[in-house]
């Protein structure tokens, strides 16, 4: 048989199948990807560096949805907030990838370029180098935690009756739609307030 005009396997196809498996099951395996693509497992290793290589393909695919143009905003705080909102939306679409990706070092060139741009935004704003990565890590914790929260039920608390937890029941009854969005905006505002305070502290 001649070779197919359209290759059965390439990096974009591997990324698509791997992400579909993680979205469905929270995990993937290289043999499972090969079966879905109709090729031998060994064929994948001509395109990716094993499991770690597949994980970076997944990271690149998910983070392609992040709007990096936000980082070009003139004001550093606007740039950071808008990037955080876009980052959250990208991962909220694939919440099951979060535990997988957070346990592996970031090597994907596209994501490393985003970090480079975020670091530049903070340094150009006047933040001390020693403060930059803790700030980025804290922001990511907020973003990814909220992305997971978006995948949770709208109501996470279910008291058996209102008599044993009257105040909790009252507070739950007052919740409108968009609990996760409201919580994220509170956390983001708190982070931005802290970051502005750090910047002002250099001048004090």
UniProtKB/TrEMBL annotation:
InterPro entries: Homeodomain-like_sf, HTH-type_TetR-like_transc_reg, HTH_TetR, Repressor_TetR_C, Tet_transcr_reg_TetR-rel_C_sf. Residues 8-66 form the HTH tetR-type domain. SUPFAM superfamilies: Homeodomain-like (SSF46689), Tetracyclin repressor-like, C-terminal domain (SSF48498). The keyword Nucleotidyltransferase does not apply. Residues 29-48 bind DNA. Keywords: DNA-binding, Transcription, Transcription regulation. PANTHER family: HTH-TYPE TRANSCRIPTIONAL REGULATOR RUTR (PTHR30055), TRANSCRIPTIONAL REGULATORY PROTEIN (PTHR30055:SF151). This is TetR/AcrR family transcriptional regulator.
